Amino acid sequence: WGREGAVSRAHAYNPRAGRCRLSKIGAGRRPPPARVRVAVRLRPFVDGTAGASDPPCVRGMDSCSLEIANWRNHQETLKYQFDAFYGERSTQQDIYAGSVQPILRHLLEGQNASVLAYGPTGAGKTHTMLGSPEQPGVIPRALMDLLQLTREEGTEGRPWALSVTMSYLEIYQEKVLDLLDSTSGDLVIREDCRGNILIPGLTQKPITSFADFERHFLPASRNRTVGATRLNQRSSRSHAVLLVKVDQRERLAPFRQREGKLYLIDLAGSEDNRRTGNKGLRLKESGAINASLFVLGKVVDALNQGLPRVPYRDSKLTRLLQDSLGGSAHSILIANIAPERHFYLDTVSALNFAARTKEVINRPFTNESLQPHVLGPVKLSQKELLGPPEAKRARGPEEEEIGSLGPMAASASASQKLSPLQKLSSMDPAMLERLLSLDRLLASQGSQGPPLLSTPKRERMVLMKTVEEKDLEIERLKMKQKELEAKVLAQKAEDSKEKENHCPTILRPLLHRTVTVAKPLKKAVVMPLQLIQEQAASPNAEIHILKNKGRKRKLESLDAPEPEEKAEDCWELQISPELLAHGRQKILDLLNEGSARDLRSLQRIGPKKAQLIVGWRELHGPFSQVEDLERVEGITGKQMESFLKANILGLAAGQRCGPS
Ligand code: ADP
Ligand code: MG
Hints:
Layout: H1 19-27, E1 36-42, E2 58-60, E3 65-69, E4 77-81, E5 84-86, H2 92-104, E6 113-118, H3 125-129, H4 138-153, E7 160-172, E8 175-178, E9 190-191, E10 197-198, E11 205-207, H5 210-225, H6 229-237, E12 239-250, E13 257-266, H7 280-305, H8 316-320, E14 330-337, H9 344-354, E15 357-361, H10 366-369, H11 382-386, H12 389-394, H13 396-403, H14 407-416, H15 429-444, H16 457-498, H17 529-537, E16 543-549, E17 552-557, E18 571-575, H18 577-593, H19 596-600, H20 607-620, H21 637-653
Helix pairs in contact: 2-4, 15-16, 18-21
The structure holds adenosine-5'-diphosphate (ADP) and magnesium ion.
Adenosine-5'-diphosphate (ADP) binds near residues 119, 122, 124, 125 and 336.
Keywords: ATP-binding, Coiled coil, Cytoplasm, Cytoskeleton, DNA-binding, Isopeptide bond, Microtubule, Motor protein, Nucleotide-binding, Nucleus, Phosphoprotein, Ubl conjugation
Subcellular location: Cytoplasm, Cytoskeleton; Nucleus
Protein name: Kinesin-like protein
């Protein structure tokens, strides 16, 4: 491939005409880029895997759409629409005949095609593409048919002589490696002057029968997927690309040539490696994989929306596919998903990647598939179970559900005000306690969603990881709060002394030691309650600069006259929690809705970070809190903190303020 590559793609080839000239003539008549078709395949539960006895968290609605539970609100499901949906009972033949076979004939017209299997590791990509001897997948079926087709079309007496070749490569950490020649290093991808993509030096084996294909493919494939764990990990982190090329030469004048390329690709796992806790090399690998998958998403988006620029060149994978995705090529992306609940977040992210449309449907998903449990005895006290009044209000919908249960469940539930979906007796008390405290925290922050306790069991396991992180965060904040409380106490004595001399209208004697709960902004100084109320009355007084001068402190309002002395030592800001929350919300809105350009208007966000943020959002959906920024590859916790510090006030107050 590439060495002999003097062939035209869809246009008649005239050996006397310059190739580039030919392409220029043809360029004006190029059809608009073709859309990438998207199919989703839901695999069945696999025996022996964790969660196989639980109800599924996703189900098909018809041949094009599916719905998935919304863990934020179990009264809703999310409905996704695709070109095709294959449910858990679909066979290998269904997928092949429905989505792959129809595009093969275009190869004989000199057009290119690609089939890509996308999805998290374990969701069935390799099963779909390769399959097993009992259930052969897309690759063997397509090869079988293509070889048959070329034999028929190329028989003596027909106008065209046909030949088929194969190449097999892997893209691992943005390196292109020849799987048919283990000695080859990173190969270069080139584009000829007609826009054909080629890889000089890539092995290209002629095949005339399926046995030929197997002879080359199986050892290379085995090398890649079987063996040490390290190799297995690698196989789920690299893109395996099988290229089948059909060459046609006209037997009589004008002796035209045609070439059609078919790419059959088992993509790297799309799972979020940060969430699954992978460290070190794997994290580095995932960065590279995500870059390729991320650009693939952009390319598919650009093609499907008809955008003028398609960013093929931004990754090796898309660069390789440049002449086989879009243009006159026929492409299908098969997103593989799994029904188990521990796949939930990866499933949502795979669906978001693949979806063209998504809508929220107001109907509970879990109720239909879950058996209502009779609530068992619970060790926690009634008070603990009820939580704050807000939490009780948020539990409204469950109370209605309780009514539809048996009398025993209803009476147990009525006394405990808990979701009928849970068997609390079977829950780890520590976990229950954590869920309760998280529920209370969410409720106290005004969250309108249902309590976590009403989240079904498997889903909860996925959530527990998040809960643990939150716990740590809460612990850290509590420590911080204690420190700050001590600081405020120590300050009180000084403040009351200074109050007569400085800003008497702002500094009032502190009646109680009440301190507001610090919002998780690291550098905010927690203020006494009275002070905050005072300031809230006047919008301009919400931010105060507290100046440390030696051991003395002055409190100055921003709109106060010029301070007498220049700030030379430490400054700290006092900000009302409402203002902080407002600022955080504004940042969150920008992170979720802003374009890369909007994001660049933020402090500490350059073009690269803006791209990373937009990319993360595309892959994982909206940020649920500003701290999620830390999960974006390339943004560290420290950077996230300094980003917050730099932006929160400016956005909250609608102006830049600070002691610069
Ligand atoms: P991936 O390549 O996405 O990591 P695999 O193709 O290896 O996932 O699938 C994981 C497991 O699930 C394998 O044991 C595979 O045989 C099984 N599997 C996947 N899809 C199906 C399906 N549609 N029907 C039956 N088993 C499947
Ligand atoms: Mg696989």
